Automatic annotation (TrEMBL):
Coiled coil: none annotated. Pfam families: Haem_oxygenas_2 (PF14518). Residues 232-243 have a biased composition (Low complexity). Residues 232-252 are annotated as: Disordered. Gene3D superfamilies: Heme oxygenase-like. The keyword Lyase does not apply. This is Iron-containing redox enzyme family protein. It comes from Paracraurococcus lichenis. Keywords: Oxidoreductase.
Length: 252
């Protein structure tokens, strides 16, 4: 199987999963989020975006191939603000949340519960950390490719929800940055996978890593969907099986 066919197979599986289509993303298509929506979604996503650079750093340190490490470091550099710490993605997201919630509440959420409020978020972060730091390298790189591929769709959904709240455009820089950078991250990971497979690494491990990462994101968004349903139970419709075999969360 060629590299392009492997990536196409991974992409198709992601596009059929709850990492790609889920109640949280569907909610963003139905009008403005409430402040409680922004709180439930935002605090859990903040835990991820704050933790991710350390996970990626751990993966960078494991890679022996200088060319592949350079590709990963380029992604890490942009995550950390491309040389300006004030533009680190986590800080941009904090500013976004502070524009629609109480700023002190946002600061406390990150300081007091850095792994999120929900058990499902804590499980998600532990699972992702284990993939990046402990799984066989091919599997870890497959996970990183899957993360970047699904992130473009994920961020588009989050952007739609926050934009509909009619926030000051100056506070939406998080999404403007990603409109440019995320596609470049996908391109860099495509090159990294080509190098990986050219070096004879196990494509099955790579695909298992992508599947594991997709499953973690599916569970992450499922947990947030459950939390949204608890916050507004009247909006929760009937459940059904999800495309990736997980119990579907409420379609809010």
């Amino acid at each position: 199987m060629t590299t392009s066919l492997i990536m196409s197979a991974i992409n198709e599986k992601i596009a059929r999963s709850r990492a790609w289509s889920n109640p949280v993303f569907e909610r963003s298509r139905r009008g403005p989020w409430s402040c409680e929506d922004a709180r439930v979604i935002g605090f859990e996503y903040l835990a991820f975006t704050a933790a991710f650079p350390k996970m990626l750093s751990a993966l960078c340190a494991r890679v022996d191939d200088d060319g592949m490490r350079a590709l990963l470091v380029e992604i890490l550099h942009s995550e950390l603000g491309s040389g300006n710490p004030e533009n680190a993605h986590a800080r941009l997201f904090v500013r976004l949340l502070a524009s629609c919630l109480d700023a002190q509440e946002v600061t406390r959420a990150l300081a007091e519960r850095p792994q999120g409020r929900l058990p499902s978020t804590r499980d998600f972060l532990r699972g992702l950390q284990a993939l990046y730091a402990e799984a066989p390298l091919s599997r870890a790189l497959g996970a990183q490719y899957a993360l970047e591929f699904q992130a473009d769709n994920m961020l588009e959904s989050l952007s739609r929800g926050f934009h509909a709240m009619r926030l000051d455009e100056r506070n939406l820089e998080f999404f403007r940055v990603h409109e440019v950078e995320e596609k470049d991250h996908i391109r860099l990971m495509q090159i990294a996978l080509q190098r990986l497979l050219h070096n004879g690494e196990d494509k099955e491990e790579l695909m298992q890593g992508a599947q594991a990462c997709t499953g973690l994101f599916s569970a992450f968004w499922h947990g947030i969907g459950e939390a949204l349903a608890r916050a507004s139970p009247a909006a929760a419709p009937a459940r059904g099986p999800s495309p990736d075999g997980m119990p579907a969360g409420p379609r809010n």
